[in-house]
Design a protein that fits this description.
Family: Belongs to the peptidase M48 family.
Number of domains: 3
Pfam family, one: Peptidase_M48
Distance between the termini: 45 Å
Protein name: M48 family metallopeptidase
Number of strands: 4
Strand content: under 5%
Largest sheet: 4 strands, mixed
Helix content: over 70%
Organism: Caldicellulosiruptor morganii
InterPro entries: HtpX_protease (IPR050083), Peptidase_M48 (IPR001915)
Length: about 325
């Protein structure tokens, strides 16, 4: 978080330097600079921590493999945002726009990035359609029990890097991505438990909520910039550029913290959905514990670190589902 915030501050500062140097398309260059710096510092971090990472995770990967994996993971995170920001700036260079048109372009590009995201994920994860006939039958039957008649099930290779995870995405067609490391280490009931959690995200409309949160970032930026302009124009308060940058990033840091809090609540809601729809408590608890072990996740996370994560730590989630299970037993 500290690195990313510092990088965007650097990118903004460099954009202003380029502007004063009268180099055109400074906003597009600022985006490129910020992204390049994110990639540079993240890859540098991987290079410096390579030997420690190998020992902690006990993986048989050379540095080149680690950097390729990191690069793909970065692209998965950065590509949708990069598509929206660069697309918007290129369009603004071609046609004259106003604030309303800018927002319409923002919304359309965001929706496009979301619609193509499953294909982006498929490409970057190197995922292939599931070839296990037994697994397809089991999961398809499980999905039908949750009123999902059709879904594209993909498996991606992750045994070498030891990543056990699963995703469900897609606004129209549903795409399910499961890592082969997860399939290899969890039994069928535990795989279904993980899948139930992912289905919970879809049933609770978490994808749509996240889209709305993304779409609000642009109006939020306009509100902050308009407020700073108002102070300078009508109140004759000239705010130095570093303070203006600090205020802008403080607002966005608070907003991101709020989003992360919403994400953590969504994880609890998906956990509750899984238990409430019939996944056995013992199976779900076992699946969570195995995922923590397979991914080397700490069961104990201090409250500050947890506030900067999208998921609550495992012990907190297990405590939560235990209470849900006890409540169900009392009702029975």
């Amino acid at each position: 978080m500290i690195i990313i915030v510092s990088i965007f501050i650097s990118g903004y500062a460099m954009a202003n330097i380029l502007k004063y140097m009268r180099i055109t398309r400074n906003k597009l260059l600022a985006i490129i600079i910020a992204v390049v710096l994110i990639f540079f510092f993240t890859l540098l971090d991987q290079i410096l921590s390579y030997e420690t990472y190998k020992k902690l995770r006990n993986v048989d990967l050379n540095l080149s493999d680690i950097l390729k994996i990191t690069l793909r993971q970065l692209l998965i995170i950065v590509f949708p945002t990069l598509l929206v920001l660069t697309g918007r700036n290129i369009i603004r260079e071609i046609i004259r726009t106003n604030e309303v048109m800018d927002y319409i372009i923002w919304v359309l590009l965001t929706l496009i990035s979301i619609l193509i995201y499953p294909y982006t994920l498929k490409l970057l994860l190197r995922a292939k359609p599931c070839k296990s006939h037994d697994l397809i039958i089991e999961l398809s039957s499980f999905l039908k029990n949750h009123n999902i008649q059709k879904a594209n099930i993909y498996i991606w290779p992750s045994k070498n890097e030891k990543i056990a995870n699963a995703y469900i995405c897609g606004l129209i067609a549903k795409y399910i991505f499961i890592s082969d490391y997860l399939v290899y280490n969890l039994d069928m009931d535990e795989i279904k438990a993980v899948l139930a959690h992912e289905i919970g995200h879809w049933k609770k409309h978490h994808i749509e909520i996240r889209i709305l949160l993304m779409l609000f970032t642009y109006p939020l930026f306009l509100i902050v910039s308009s407020f700073l302009d108002y102070l300078a124009t009508f109140k004759n308060i000239n705010i130095p550029i570093p303070i203006g940058i600090f205020i802008t990033f403080l607002v966005f840091f608070i907003y991101i913290s709020m989003i992360l809090g919403i994400f953590r609540k969504q994880e609890y809601a998906a956990d509750k959905y899984a238990i409430m729809t019939g996944v056995k408590y013992e199976v779900y608890r076992s699946a969570l514990s195995k995922l923590a072990l397979l991914n080397d996740l700490s069961k104990h996370t201090n409250i500050i670190c947890e506030k900067l994560q999208t998921h609550p730590h495992i012990e907190r989630r297990i405590y939560y589902i235990t209470n849900i299970y006890k409540q169900l037993k009392r009702e029975i």
